[in-house]
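Entry 14. Ran structure prediction on the chain below.
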Amino acid sequence: MRFLIPLGLFLGLALMLGLGLDRDPRVLPSALIDRPAPEFVRPVLEAPDQRFSTTAMKGQVWMLNVWASWCEPCRQELPTLRQLAARDGVPLYGLNYKDRDEPALALLAGVGNPYRASAVDADGRVGMDFGVQGVPETFLIDAQGRVRFRHQGPVTAEVWRDKLMPAMKALQ
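Output, structure tokens:
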């Protein structure tokens, strides 16, 4: 009888470990999926006198790409984003995360700006509201303002083709 309790604990731990090993450690779940996107109003990087607002985006399906000039994967994905968003007519907006305006503007001028507008999130509060774990991250937001998809890491042509565009088309 006294062996049943340790045996039960061992089997329970083994079961939990087995279930944990079945998950992809690169996939970080987002608590925002199927929930309203955090509302924010921020200055536009390219035109600081203008404001970008998530409320103004309601009624359309759009992508939000969180990026920074100090982020090497962000630098690498910008040309891909520019080409694919233009080709497919995707409303792609940026959130310049914990960055300074001058290097961000210089990067966009150097590699090409894929964004219709990029909001400034110098203090990182908007990124925190979105649960950003690290840049780049891309969110797909539906016409009701709900987050429907999240991709962590750089957007490649394959990610665009296999994940983002099918999700975008399903919402349109």
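Strands lie at 41-44, 47-53, 62-67, 92-97, 118-121, 137-141, 147-152. Will compare against last week's run tomorrow.
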